[in-house]
Amino acid sequence: HQAIVEAYGGYVGQAGEILHGKASSIEHDGQAMFAGLANPLPVARYHSLVGSNIPAGLTINANFNGMVMAVRHDADRVCGFQFHPESILTTQGARLLEQTLAWALQKLEHTNTIQPILEKLYQAETLSQQESHQLFSAVVRGEVKPEQLAAALVSMKVRGEQPQEIAGAATALLENAAPFPRPDYL
């Protein structure tokens, strides 16, 4: 949890009190891995540090008296808990872990939706503009494995890229483009 907060640009510092093997009841947003769980949820806390200055990309999905107890990044399917779901003190810990795994794997399930598109390419078939857009949108989101991307690009190159495939790819790239500020020295 603390490493995730730091990696995404947040800050980790002293919690103010040392909590090792203490039970607390956290409040959560009832979303994703917390769906259907008791709220407040009894959990086991073992920490003396706490995350703060949580960046916009992370969702704070649980807290205790204003202290961040859980974060998630929906696009990257990364989450962290400032408590121990595996502890007997976390009364619904097993369900929380099951739901966390299901939530994390949703990204992989989405990747399977591009499998028919990849199969078309492997059979040297031409993609429609919509299929190309779907494929390259998944590429930009990081949902295509490197070996799948390599195979798709080689398949297109061998038979020759078609205008609608290029248009679909270009549209996906433009939709996901981020502006790059001009440096002051220019």
TrEMBL record:
EC primary class: lyase
tRNA-binding listed as a keyword: no
GO cellular component: cytosol
InterPro entries: Anth_synth/Amidotransfase, Class_I_gatase-like, GATASE, Glycosyl_Trfase_fam3_N_dom, Glycosyl_Trfase_fam3_N_dom_sf, TrpG/PapA_dom
Keyword tags: Glutamine amidotransferase, Glycosyltransferase, Lyase, Transferase
Coiled coil regions in record: none
GO molecular function: anthranilate phosphoribosyltransferase activity; anthranilate synthase activity
Cited Gene3D superfamilies: 3.40.50.880, Transferase, Pyrimidine Nucleoside Phosphorylase, Chain C (1.20.970.10)
Domain Glutamine amidotransferase: residue ranges: 1-100
UniProt domain Glycosyl transferase family 3 N-terminal: residue ranges: 115-177
Catalytic activity, reaction form: chorismate + L-glutamine = anthranilate + pyruvate + L-glutamate + H(+)
Keyword Lyase: yes
Enzyme Commission identifier(s): 4.1.3.27
An annotated GO BP: phenazine biosynthetic process
Name this protein carries in UniProt: anthranilate synthase
